[in-house]
Amino acid sequence: xxxxxxxxxxxxxxxxxxxxxxxxxxxxxxxxxxxxxxxxxxxxxxxxxxxxxxxxxxxxxxxxxxxxxxxxxxxxxxxxxxxxxxxxxxxxxxxxxxxxxxxxxxxxxxxxxxxxxxxxxxxxxxxxxxxxxxxxxxxxxxxxxxxxxxxxxxxxxxxxxxxxxxxxxxxxxxxxxxxxxxxxxxxxxxxxxxxxxx
Length: 198
What we know:
By secondary structure, the protein is an all-alpha fold. It has one domain (about 5-150).
């Protein structure tokens, strides 16, 4: 089918617009999924710590809550901006479709629309597969994070008032040889102890 140059350029423009719209719609779906699932993607997790001394746990809790809320506000801002792009693209797509329809016959227009639709459906299916895999990974990582957060091993606390003093390990000597104090002290550090070179 030989098409005029103007019709070809309008067709290419419409195809690119529809593909771009599918990509932005995929981004929009991702943003909505993250927001509704209360999951922050890595790129939007704000990580910063106060730069002074030991802090009260209640202060740190408020600090982290503020950072999390700010990250979700950024996510909502991105979602709104993406929605605006999608809406603007739909208006441009409608306008370009009407230009294409005016520049060719009805049969040519239907054929061109079919070509665009098959390309768009293929792209949509590819993006949907990637999106599902990504969401499964994100949810699995989020569950691991929650599990680690609530089931973390607490450090053992030495009951002595002076925490730098740790009870020495018992050294058992099955041989007949009598060990000197420095040898016992060295062995009490454990079998994995390695002296640092001078």
